[in-house]
From TrEMBL:
UniProt remark on cofactor binding: Binds 1 FAD per subunit.
The Pyridine nucleotide-disulphide oxidoreductase dimerisation domain, residue ranges: 358-467
InterPro entries hit by this protein: Class-I_Pyr_Nuc-Dis_Oxidored, FAD/NAD-bd_sf, FAD/NAD-binding_dom, FAD/NAD-linked_Rdtase_dimer_sf, Lipoamide_DH, Pyr_nuc-diS_OxRdtase, Pyr_nucl-diS_OxRdtase_dimer, Pyr_OxRdtase_I_AS
UniProt subcellular location: Cytoplasm
Assigned EC number: 1.8.1.4
The entry's keywords: Cytoplasm, Disulfide bond, FAD, Flavoprotein, NAD, Oxidoreductase, Redox-active center
Protein name: Dihydrolipoyl dehydrogenase
Amino acid sequence: MSDKYDVIVIGAGPAGYVAAIRAAQLGMRVGCIDRWLDDQGDPSLGGTCLNAGCIPSKALLESSELYHRAHHDFADHGLDIKDVTMDIGRMQKRREKIVSQLTGGIAGLFKANGVEWLQGSGSVADAGKVAFEPVGKNARKKTLEADNIIIASGSEPVALDIAPFDDERILDSRGALTLPDVPKRLGIIGAGYIGVELGSVWSRLGAETVILEAQESFMPIADTQIAREALRQFGKQGMDIRLGARVVSAKAKTGKSGNVTVRYSVDGDENEEVFDRLIVAVGRRPCTDGLLGGDAQVELDDKGFVSVDEEFRTSLPGVYAVGDVIGGPMLAHKGMEEGSAVAEILAGQKPHVNYETVPCVVYTSPEIAWVGKTEAQAKSEGIDYRVGAIPFAANGRAKALGQEIGQVKLIADAKTDRILGAHMIGPYVSELIQEIVVAMEFQASSEDIARIIHGHPTLSENVHEAALAVDGRPIHFAPKKRK
């Protein structure tokens, strides 16, 4: 088969595999290079998201939440279950099965759409040329040609010199998902969404969990009111989140009885903690190591991200980039939209990615979700706005579920009533936020949401009530007057 393609995609994570499939749907000959190996050392599509991120973490979050609810909530439903235990091995096998099904599904989609899966490593050698090194002992490097190249190499966990990964005691997020047992004491550096999700998994299963966060505020990217409630709930669940805690060093002792000694400072006072395992979850960095050959003049910004224009073009003609490697929110769905958009651009179409309506979700319990501006952002931008907020304690479906914690908060422009943002904490808000994403995409007002009939009893009624509350007329809740 010819080594000449219309498009070569480097990376088969969400941005890459979507770009490859969409380009193939549009009639292009597509090769997609990926070097990911699963836990058994076999090539696997889907990148971090499917193999060691979004999907496996949600599998473990679901298993651990059921275990936690069996111990703490089921009795309220009349379910008298005694001696509930967790088989970690079976839980991990379930995770592996889900991952295998979904990564195998991507392979099936490649086959159905005619995308060639090139198993190995790729780097941009020059405009229209990719150096490809296939997997396998006897495989030979070769140069592939393409009219266009799409870089979708993704991101990887940030490593700390003061806490180097050893894959036994000090772990990155991938290692944290494959633990064979529950640590007695678990330390986590970083209280972002990765840190609190991983903390939730192992805390629910019995680990004494301490999260050290260098920032003075918790989840500053989220709405302040929502973040404050989340911190309170996580504390009630047993997670010890220490803000303003700057880690100075982490030293691991290997072996069965090994541990990790972590030194950190708070307000200038030095402290020490000893953990069975330590997870470093301080963010992710773009994967660009080995990505660019000597003649590939692709510009990177000061943080190492690939620089692109509004149509995802890099500084090298015919080379595009999408997903985590170009920065912005490191979210699979954001990368997917960019992957689809760049394929359509290559086909001469005019797609658009609206970065104002990218939803963010934290899959803890309660879940956290938001889209658009926070109240603080609206205030700092001098926007005259109104807020409608309704707690789930007033919602019949939430009461029936036994999950009454949290609220839905809607922010709208005071003059035009256009929805500026929504912020939620509570049951299944990962699903509820999508209604506001659609509404914002169509530039809807809070009155538009208020006039839409929502089924009863549903959690979505809280979205409806929040929209009514923007205008000061909620039906099922009497809010306190804002000062």
